[in-house]
Write a structure and sequence with these properties.
The protein is about 65% helix and about 0% strand. The chain is mostly helical and about 250 residues long. Helix 7 packs parallel to helix 9. The chain is globular, with a radius of gyration of 18 Å.
Amino acid sequence: MGVMGKIVGGTIGFALGGPLGAIAGAAFGHVFDKSDVEYVEYRKDPMSAGESSQFTFYVAAFSMLAKLAKADGRLDPSELDAVRRFMAKDLNLDPFGRKIAEDIFSAALNSNDRFEDFANQFYREFRAQPQLLELMADILFKVASADGTLNETESRMIRTAMTLFHLDETVHQGLLRKYGGLNDKAYAVLKSIRTDSDDQIKTNYRKLVGDYHPDKIASKGLPDEFNKFAHDKFIEIQNAYEEIKKDRGMA
């Protein structure tokens, strides 16, 4: 059972606080009905620190995606489709998980809070976990570019988030190469460029597989519902390394 099935609605907003707490309170005010009983583990004890972090990640992801989908002031149907594909394909959410995600998304769409407000609160929670900050930036890029384009407003908003996350320019450029239609995607995945030495490529690869190993990143506060996305990223790192090794004839 994912973290979203272990939460009791009445305490959620208060437990989280801030703009994300307001979104959670609005979303969970009507999410629980008789059809949800099989998915929910009712409990009286407060969330643990780990559950609170997982819950924050979940709410922040769909809140920021909502503001990104409405970047030009209106909800683009293609952006909504991209978010739904992300829920189904990249996260493989069960019916209850999708319902919660859509309610969070809807609450954030109608909120007066800004994209930056959500990003700031997310950073405060995960400032000691750079892998999760980068993973969130990866998610924003992936969904925003799902239609094959990344418009100027979306690009500016993602750049703002990465600045608030204190991620350096190399991370931003790497994601641009990965999702923005630039060349050398395999090198971008490994945070490398073609002129890097074989030893540098190996060093980057070893660091990334260590940082994004499924067991390690799960222990950092990633919700169970996002484990598939993180696992796919881990496989992507391995595949990129194999592609570069083959291209260079590396041992």
